[in-house]
Fold:
Amino acid sequence: MNHSSSMFADDRIFFLSTLVLVIALVAAVGAGALETGRPPLGTPTATPTATLTPTSTPTPSPTATPTPTPSPTPTETATAAPTATPAVSAASTPRPATVLPRPTRQSYNVPAGRHDWLLRPTGEKDWQSGSVFYPYGTDGRGQYLLHHGMDIVNPMGTPVLAVADGEIIFAGSDDTQAIGPQTHFYGNVIILKPDRTLGDYPIFCLYGHLSRIDVTAGQRVQAGQVIGAVGMSGIAMGPHLHFEVRFAQNDYYHSVNPELWIVPLPGLGSIAGRVLDRQGRELENHPIAVYRIQQPDKVWREAFTYIQAEGIGPDPAWGENFVIGDVWAGTYILKTKVDGQWLSATVTVPDGETVFVVLQPASP
Structure:
């Protein structure tokens, strides 16, 4: 199912300005607010800067990219949306959705609780958030290949860092060995196997499109160590880092959303959840409109559930089919239409945490 039509018109204008904004973004790194490498912190009532809005998202690459985020236990209760007229008019009053404890992926025996213990793969003075236009499990609204990771845009040569203590198990070009779906895909690649595991299962962290590799296979590295530099080798449309997390096995078809694995930035959190139909089936590529509580009649961001394909799947400790990463701590309203019924959930995101919500229509 593909519901990515003009359902949320407020969010559509950003794509036309993306290329211009990418140029401005790259030129601006190292000056002003972008010098911090993260959205400028402030009160949640302030309008977020370009780092959190779709218009700020740099041009993504046609490859896959995840982006980890914290996974704390959700505590918020969904409520009906404010009475203000939403940007997307509903045929009837939206019904409250249910905020539930995160489901566990039964095929893996993993401990409950958050696992956001990977460092950000770029430094504090660099851009550290992933593209909101091209997140894990999506295709950039039909513009690109299905994404298995997250894209972090920075100028050519920006250092990339080891996200954990561990061993480099691959460092080189994918010209002769397929690290992705084919050779010549990620270009210059590093794969780090952290010492830490989730339960009994290892994870693997892939850095793609590099311009420089500073490590060798078999080398031990420490968290925060420079291991390479941002580039645009392989299939890439501009300098950026493709960062990917693979769970249990080191291959393209065992990717998970990196935003549930990386440490939260100060002042930010995330929203994860599931969108289901009445029968409990997950909906793919399904749009979700996100409103800030201060502007309940204006779409702030639009998200999509994962496209159902081999290699794209829920985190074993979360069971999600969408993640909205790096949002300001504060209150948000989520709206979507399922089986002809408008649903709404009001959730409050604590600083440094992830809230889990299920959007599913009630049985007739």
In short: The radius of gyration is 19 Å. Helices lie at 13-16, 18-28. The longest helix spans residues 18-28.
